[in-house]
Specification:
By secondary structure, the chain is of the alpha+beta class. The protein has a two-stranded parallel sheet. The longest helix is centred in the first third of the chain and has 24 residues. The protein starts with a helix and ends with a helix.
């Protein structure tokens, strides 16, 4: 992909998520059962380091309290919610 187009798409995505961050986060305050089950089935040992790419508002942090959790997201507004 052309670097200029890729940059434009990434910037547009960040801008769009920043614009809708409050509404988006309000619909994702709780972990859905399938997400909770998936995280539980990973059997992540206590003290592990976990990187959540595209963490949004960081909602899965609640499921990973016994690990070193790091969340990254393209949306600075969603990171504020996290």
């Amino acid at each position: 992909m052309n670097k200029k187009i890729a940059h434009k798409l990434i910037t547009k995505t960040a801008d769009d998520y920043n614009l809708i961050a409050d509404q988006f986060s309000s619909t994702r305050k709780f972990n859905w059962n399938d997400i909770a089950s998936a995280v539980k089935n990973l059997n992540i040992p206590e003290g592990s380091k976990v990187l959540d790419l595209g963490c949004g508002n960081g909602r899965i942090y609640e499921l990973l309290k016994n690990v070193d959790y790091y969340g990254l997201d393209i949306s600075s507004e969603l990171i504020k919610h996290a």
